[in-house]
């Protein structure tokens, strides 16, 4: 969420791909604000996207403080190349038999060579750890899980059904980065 200043103005939000100097973006401007021209190239190439910002984000409204009733681990495996899968390992049965009302934590461990923005349907989750280091992070429905990194998210099982959990790059999803969580009323 971006809060525009009361006095008005223009606020550029720029995007720069990993490893490139080219950039683009959008400009949020209040009516009548002067919008300057922005050069299309940054001073240096962007580095790889990591979780430095994620670790600093603070939720507007965090999940209620509570111990997890269930902690699941999901491995992202496969590659190099565009062929992956998701492996619940010994949590395979638990992932499809959650109980309504539980606080669930899922630790996604990326053992592939690419980052995957992981998206859970039907819930908002809170980012609660990166590489096992706990913090009270952002509320989201998608979180980036970089290669060789683990991200733990927590959510309340308050919406029974069978819910996709997948990489939000749809060609990654089609190449195997897709599973489901399930629970009944
Ligand atoms: Cu992916």
List the helices and strands and how they pair.
Elements: E1 10-15, E2 24-29, H1 52-56, E3 70-78, E4 84-87, H2 92-95, E5 98-99, E6 103-110, E7 116-120, E8 125-130, E9 133-134, E10 139-140, E11 142-145, E12 150-156, E13 161-167, H3 170-174, E14 178-184
Parallel strand pairs: 3-6, 5-14
Antiparallel strand pairs: 1-2, 3-4, 6-12, 7-11, 7-13, 8-9, 8-10, 8-12, 13-14
This protein binds copper (II) ion.
Strand content: 35-45%
Unreliable segments (pLDDT under 50, ≥5 consecutive)?
Answer: none
Silhouette: globular
Largest sheet: 7 strands, mixed
Number of domains: 2
By helix and strand content, what is the structural category?
mainly beta
Number of strands: 14
How many angstroms separate the termini?
Answer: 33 Å
Q: What is the CATH third-level topology name of the largest domain? A: Immunoglobulin-like
Overall average pLDDT: 95
What radius of gyration results from the CA coordinates? 19 Å
Q: Name the CATH class of the largest domain.
A: Mainly Beta
Number of helices, counting only DSSP H or I runs of 4 residues or more: 3
Bound ligands, each once:
copper (II) ion
Query: What would CATH call the homologous superfamily of the largest domain?
Result: Cupredoxins -  blue copper proteins
Helix proportion range: under 10%
Along the chain, the helix and strand elements come as: EEHEEHEEEEEEEEEHE
Report the CATH architecture of the largest domain: Sandwich
